[in-house]
Design brief:
alpha+beta, Porin, 14-stranded antiparallel sheet, about 15% helix, about 40% strand
Amino acid sequence: MDDITFFGLRDHEDPTVWSFDVERRLCSGIGALFGGAGLGAAITALEHYTHRPTVWATAQFLEFALPPAELEITVEEMVRGHQVSQARAVGRVDGREIFTVQAALGERDVPFLGEWAERPNVPPPEDCVGREIPPHMRGTISERMDMRLADARDFSELDGIEGSGRCSLWVRLPEFLEMSAAALAIVGDYVPFGISQALGQRAGGNSLDNTLRICSRTPTEWILADVRIHAVGHGFGHGLVHLWGEDGTLLASASQSAIVRKFREDMIQEKQK
């Protein structure tokens, strides 16, 4: 399955317009469009319009998109250089602006190469326990992912004891046939997961933004999401995610700020039944 099929993207007679249906399979546990899915769909539209690969893309999330709804993405290439395009995409539902994405796309042939980030020393995915999906996340985008806890606690193990601020999990998207910026945008949206791990609380949040920076598109079946929470305060959490291939290649980095919310008690009670 390619990116267009995963999101259900439809092109239009106007090449600057794309759309898809907001369905539960693209939503987060709060029942609204998953931020990484919105960013991923916008990246897909931008790459197809410019015919260039993403270098970086940043999304600001303005409103929730709730199913059922049709989300329209309009793209614009503001500057097209010899090797780099500067572009934007805006997602709307019934005229309401849901998110805006700014991006640079392109590729340059230069002799410089290096990687200085440090990958955590964790077991391979086949040696890690699977992540249990809480009831409020069933039928959502989380069930379209295979997740293994490399260095993290399951939902039932969050006992109020704070973590180190760093956690990791392996993620596989079985529906994707090859590595793409859209797939990395989805897996990069895991700062809220890291916030719950850092606090040791059954909490999470919704993203205010998401910035993705692509380092490599090396093929890999599993992606290691190495989450690092910097701080939580005044109702917001901040952190980043390094995304690694199975061979240790740094694929991308993603950073976010999120509104921190405690899961509702009825969700917890349903989980414990």
